[in-house]
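Appendix C reproduces, verbatim, an entry submitted by the partner laboratory led by Prof. M.T., so that reviewers can inspect both the input and the predicted structure.
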Amino acid sequence: MKLLGNLSRGISPIQKRLLYRCCVLPIALYGFQLWFYIKAPISYHMKTLDKMQRRAAIWILGVFKTLPSMGIEAIAGIIPIKFHLQKITRRLEICPLKLPLSHLLRSLIDDSPSSSIMPKPHCVGSLTNCQRNLTKGHLIDSLNKTLGIFPLFSPLNPEFSPGLYITDKFSNCFCFNLVNKKEKYKPHAQELDNMVLSNSSSPQSALMITDASIKHDIATSISHVHIANRSLTRTVHHASFVTSTEAELFAIRFG
């Protein structure tokens, strides 16, 4: 890699960064789930990875070795290695929900008590509370992350049938406006502000704010309910293999 980084005839810093992200990081972080989890001693591994990333940032920019690591990482466009591990860990913790119910990992993180005649001795549901507190690992973190996450919405639910949507039953209560980010002031935005100000101080009315988004095939539905300038409930739900419209309707329904 040093031969590729020659200042006179070498590759550009953008190409160096791409080479580091595509070739070096996947090899360095292979199998990191075995040691990067909650309550795990990771100081030694993090020091080694920090040294590796510092050398990579210096190689990408071609700067002096005395410069601080955070600065050269920011200029090189490299996320700190700890935050990078946390990011990919959060993604991997949701991956078991996408597996079939008959998959081995799904049976291992099954938290429900066994109702069959032959119990599952290796699943999490067979552990006591004391054993759960002592057990550490990526699967335990994944189980804690998946609490409250729905694997999918039933596509055969009557509420998803044409003519039975919430927007079909209460069409006069919905208004859809396309927002252009370049135009800061819109008439409907002013109407929303006036509506919030008039209803937030009234104890007889409730203000419900919902939103939904999809990232990496995981839909997130958020709903907040306020009464008289006081937050009543705040909920966040996740689901996989759903459309943005279904996630929006679920947030409205839950609110």
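The chain is about 40% helix and 15% strand. Additional entries are available on request from the coordinating office.
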